[in-house]
Amino acid sequence: MTKSKSHGVLHWKLQRVSAIAMIPLVIWFVSSLISTLINGYDQSVNWLQSPINAAGLVLLFGTLYFHAASGLQVVIEDYVHNEGLKIFTLILIKLLATLLGVLSIICVLKIYLH
């Protein structure tokens, strides 16, 4: 197997693993979100100050941004034919995913540590 094929297989596997990991995380998050929103702001802050809930959100954000960047990378590689634009877009996607992931985790930690 060539290096590019093995890289493609690894990328495909990582994208599938991140998708599978997001299933329980999203189910947990949506059910928790519904129950905490009903109880109001103070209960929502208390919910996020739990170590398990804060860790779950950090895992969700990390997985979500990784999965989104991986999926967008495949689309860009398949459909953008201008090499310069392709490289620029791939770098921009990775930078935005990293920035949004870090900002999301900082927000969770700020509430958790307050």
Distance between the termini: 51 Å
* Radius of gyration computed on alpha carbons: 17 Å
Alpha-beta classification:
mainly alpha
Proportion of helical residues: over 70%
In what range is the share of β-strand residues? under 5%
DSSP helix count?
4
Number of strands: 0
Question: What overall form do the CA principal axes indicate?
Answer: elongated
Low-confidence stretches: none
What is the string of helix and strand elements? HHHH
Mean pLDDT: 93
Query: What's the main sheet like?
Result: none
What do these coordinates show?
This protein is mainly α and 114 residues long. It is built from four helices and no strands. The longest helix has 37 residues. The radius of gyration is 17 Å and the shape is elongated.
Summary?
This protein has 114 residues and is mainly alpha-helical.
Give structural attributes:
114 residues; mainly alpha; 4 helices; 92% helix; elongated
